[in-house]
Design brief:
The protein is an alpha/beta fold. It is built from 14 helices and twelve strands. The strands form three sheets. It has a four-stranded parallel β-sheet with strand order 2-1-3-4, with helices on both faces. Strand 7, helix 8 and strand 8 form a beta-alpha-beta unit. The protein binds 1,3-dihydroxyacetonephosphate (13P) and iron/sulfur cluster.
């Protein structure tokens, strides 16, 4: 059995040999965050995939994130160390289903959350992430907006616009199980703590919270706030980065059960093996990649 130090050294050596960068989402396990070149939210990682040098991107996250990197950097080798790390919400709508909705609302714009397959992005006018969804919708000319697949994010966006939002009925299995009762209990246990939640939470949780933001937005809020105590309403992996970047702040998970099993499939072993074998690779067929890229680029220029 290899120890962590040996694995880390192997990874650093292979990274050099392969001219690779390691990108990790804020929900990754601590040891993976610690070895990454960039740890961030979906938008920050998509940007890093386009701006950073390196022939190989090791994407420590879930499939749609690696697919987005492959669409944005087709000349690079994109590796997803745990090939079965998927996002169940992204599987909740297919391109065929989206085409059907579009045929029913031909005048509506189509906004897809980045948590979608490349095929669904290819059918969309513009992509968004949790950090820019409101801005993306506000930028559109159309008054009707089909928003897929997250109903909770769609309802959150609807609070900030007069446009008619037509949500798809998808949801995140991790965030959707958090209820307003969790917020009431947490506030009793930690009176005075600020409640920060992700917009994938249900509307009643959003109503009960003090601040709503993307994963990196939550981290920034903790670091820059004068408050000392926070209740964090998103996946628990984020607490590792908060502890690292905002020492001196006390953070409590809103739900200990908010664990994304797919985000936890990557560890130092899978990262080392991916770099060693240059597998598993994520590729997107050219035609789909071209159309999907239009939707992603349109978001990035905002
Ligand atoms: P962020 O873009 O806020 O990191 O969210 C991604 C995600 O999958 C949240 O569940
Ligand atoms: Fe998908 Fe939810 Fe996991 Fe985010 S936390 S990757 S939305 S299942």
């Amino acid at each position: 059995m290899l120890d962590t130090t040996t694995l880390r050294n192997d990874i650093l050596k292979l990274k050099e040999e392969r001219d690779a960068i390691i990108l990790a989402h804020n929900y990754q396990v601590g040891e993976v965050q610690d070895i990454a070149d960039v740890v961030g939210d979906s938008l920050e990682l998509a940007r890093a995939a386009t701006t950073m040098d390196g022939k190989v991107i090791v994407f420590c996250g879930v499939d749609f994130m690696a697919e987005t990197a492959a669409i944005l950097s087709p000349e690079k080798t994109v590796l997803l160390p745990a090939p079965d790390a998927c996002c169940p919400m992204a599987e909740m709508i297919t391109a065929e289903e989206l085409r059907l909705v579009k045929s029913r609302y031909p005048d509506a714009a189509v906004v897809c959350y980045v948590n979608t397959t490349a095929e669904v992005k290819a059918e969309s006018d513009i992509c968004c992430t949790s950090s820019n969804a409101v801005k993306v919708v506000q930028s559109l000319e159309q008054d009707e907006v089909i928003f897929v697949p997250d109903r909770n994010l769609a309802w959150y966006v609807a609070r900030f616009t007069k446009k008619q939002i037509l949500p798809w009925e998808g949801f995140c299995i991790v965030h959707d199980q958090i209820t307003a009762e969790f917020v009431r209990t947490a506030r009793q246990q930690h009176p005075g703590a600020l409640v920060l939640v992700h917009p994938e939470c249900r509307p009643e949780v959003i109503d009960a919270a003090d601040h709503v933001a993307s994963t990196s937005g939550i981290i920034r809020h903790v670091c820059t706030s004068e408050k000392k105590e926070f209740i964090i309403g998103t996946e628990v992996g984020i607490l590792h980065r908060i502890a690292h970047e905002c020492p001196g702040k006390a953070c409590y998970p809103l739900s200990e059960a908010a664990v994304c099993r797919n985000m936890k499939k990557t560890d130092l072993f899978t990262v080392r093996d991916a770099l060693d074998r240059l597998q598993p690779r994520i590729t997107v067929p050219q035609g789909i990649a071209r159309s999907a890229r239009r939707a992603i680029d349109r978001m990035l220029v905002l």
